[in-house]
Amino acid sequence: MVWDQATIYNFINSIAPVIVLVLALLLDRFFGEPRRFHPLVGFGKLADGIEKHLYGTVRTADYQRRWRGILAVLLAVLPFSLLVSAIYLQPLLQFGFEVLIVYVAIGANSLETHARKIIAPLQNKDLNSARKNVGMIVSRDTTKMQQPEIVRATVESVLENGNDAVFAAIFWYLLAGIPGVMAYRLVNTLDAMWGYRNPHYQYFGWAAARLDDGFNWLPARLCALTYTLLGNRVLALHSWHYQAAKWDSPNAGPVIAAGAGALGVSLGGEAVYDGTVHHRPIVGSGPGPELTDIDKAIALVNRGIVMWLILSILGYWYFA
Asked: Of all residues in the chain, what percent are helix, strand and coil, respectively (each to 5)?
C-alpha cells in the first residue's frame, strides 16, 4: 500500500469511529460528566412531564396503562433520535457533534467517582455518609445497611453499570453510530426511571423495561465475556454458566455472575426494596466482598475499556 495523501485521508476516514471513541473516552476521563446542563438530566425532566400527562388515573385499566407506557417511550425517544440523526448528517457538524454525543453517553468516570465516594466514608467508619452515597447508585433501601451490605451493593452496581453506562454504549455506537447510541442511552434512562416491578410502574414501565432488555441482551453477554477474560476465568465461567439464569434480570444475571466470579467473591443475597426483603440468589464464589474489592471492580471495568479500545482499533485497522 502506498501511503499517499489520498490513502491517508481514506484510512483516517475509515477509522473515524475509533478516533471519536478515543476522544470521547478522554473527555470522560479528564472532565467526567457535564456538571451543568447535562442532556440526560434534561431528558429525565422531560420524561417526568410525559409520565404526568400519560400515566392516567386510578381508573385506568392495566392494559391501557401498558399502551400509555409504549406511547410514552415513543414520544420520549423518537423525536430526539430523529433530530440527532438529522444533525449528524450535516458534514460541518458531524465530527464534533459525534464526539460530544458519545462523551455524554459514556459514564465511566461518573461510575468510578460515585463508587469512590463510598470508599472514603467507609475507611473513616462514617456509615451514615456511606449509606447516603450508596443510595445514589442503587435503588434498594440503604438506611439500615451495615458495611458488608454497602460494599456488596457498591460492587454489584459497579459491575452492572459497567455494562449499562460503558460497554453497551460503546457497543451501540460502534454498531449503529450516533442514532444507535442515542436511542440506547435514552431507553436505558427511561428504564432507570420507569422499569420497576412495583404496582406503580408494572404496566406503565413495561415497554421501557422490555426495550432496554433487548438493547442490552448482546452487550451484557459481551461485558460478561470481558469480565471473564480479565479476571479469574475459571470461576467467572462457572458462575456465568450455572448461576446467571437464577438472577431475576436476564442481562444483569450474566454480568454480575461473571463479574463476581472474575473477582473471586460472592454477590447477591438479601436486599430491601420498597420495604420488602428480596432473597436474591448467591452468585460468584468465595467470601463476600471486602472494601478493597470496590477498587478491584473499578479496575476490572477500566481494563475492559482498554481491551475494547484495542480490539476496536485492531478491527478498524484490519478492515480499513
From this structure: 75, 5, 20
- Angle (CA) 196 159 72, round 5°: 30
C-alpha 122, offset from chain centre: 25
Q: Which of 256, 196, 199 is nearest to 231 (CA)?
A: 256
The string over 58-83, giving b where at least 16 C-beta atoms fall within 10 Å of a residue's C-beta and e elsewhere, is eeeeeeebbbbbbebbeebbeebbee
**Under a CB-based contact definition with an 8 Å cutoff, are residues 278 and 270 in contact?**
yes
Give the model confidence (pLDDT) of 218-275 as tens digits.
Answer: 999 999 999 999 999 999 999 999 999 999 899 999 999 999 999 999 999 999 887 8
Q: In the chain, which stretches have pLDDT less than 70? A: 1-13, 35-38, 88-93, 320
pLDDT at 92: 58
Of 275, 78, 59, 260, the C-alpha closest to 187 is: 78
Q: Number of folded domains in the chain?
A: 1
Residue 4 grid cell: 499517499
Q: Which residue range forms the structural domain that includes residue 117?
A: 9-319
CA distances from 217 to 27, 67, 252 (A): 27, 23, 9
Alpha-carbon torsion (296, 302, 308, 310), positive or negative: negative
